[in-house]
Design the sequence.
């Protein structure tokens, strides 16, 4: 048992802390989904598809961290409600891709601006603490990607448009080639709709430059 004299390792306690936060976030997800008359997995699928033209079931399942049959069931429920539809996958007419319908966008839009308990908690941090936490999350997510625990997320650090520390000065050191603009450390994206995954060698070099910066 943990005592003040004999604490568990800090990595264990960080993991415990993240688990506590995940509980609040799950509750947030249920509240938002209920407002839209959906299950959390269904809402998460709409959120995933809202930033894309379409996606295959395999991609959706990987992003959500669920099995393909689970994703298929949720997609079928959304299709019955008219919130998503199937079509041929771009570049492969034999494969099926899922896209969000106008009704699906409206359902997602009706709940996406809702303030959550997790967002409120993040706002309670100082700007410096927020930036530090964002950077820590980027590093942890990147580690999980490298360990194949999660698929590559749409973060700046894995994007082919990202140029870390291209600019002198602390305010906006990074550069996004997609919009050709400088941006700050606190503007790093975790899930950017314009993200395009860089090839492995570029991702490794970008991460190196990012860490050294
Ligand atoms: S396109 Fe998005 S993910 Fe890529 S560098 Fe620009 S802001 Fe970051």
Sequence:
């Amino acid at each position: 048992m943990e005592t003040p004299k004999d604490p568990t390792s800090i990595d264990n306690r960080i993991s415990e802390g993240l688990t506590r936060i995940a509980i609040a976030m799950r509750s947030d997800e249920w509240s938002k989904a209920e407002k839209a008359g959906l299950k959390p997995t269904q809402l998460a699928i709409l959120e995933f598809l809202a930033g894309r033209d379409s996606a295959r079931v395999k991609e959706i399942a990987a992003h959500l961290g669920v099995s393909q049959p689970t994703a298929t069931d949720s997609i079928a429920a959304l299709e019955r409600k008219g919130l998503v539809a199937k079509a041929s996958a771009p570049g492969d007419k034999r494969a099926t891709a899922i896209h969000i319908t106008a009704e699906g966008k409206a359902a997602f839009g009706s709940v996406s601006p809702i303030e959550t308990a997790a967002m409120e908690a993040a706002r309670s941090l100082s700007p410096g603490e927020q930036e530090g936490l964002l950077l820590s999350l980027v590093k942890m997510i990147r580690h999980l990607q490298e360990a194949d625990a999660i698929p590559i997320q749409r973060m700046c650090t894995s994007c082919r448009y990202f140029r870390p520390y291209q600019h002198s000065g602390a305010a906006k050191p990074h550069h996004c080639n997609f919009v050709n603009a400088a941006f700050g450390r606190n503007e790093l994206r975790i899930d950017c709709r314009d993200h395009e995954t860089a090839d492995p060698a570029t991702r490794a070099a970008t991460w190196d430059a990012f860490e050294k910066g």
Q: What stands out?
A: The mean pLDDT is 92. The first strand starts at residue 84 and ends at 89. The first helix runs from residue 10 to 35. The pocket of iron/sulfur cluster is lined by residues 156, 159, 161-162, 176, 178, 189, 192, 194-195 (CB under 6 Å).
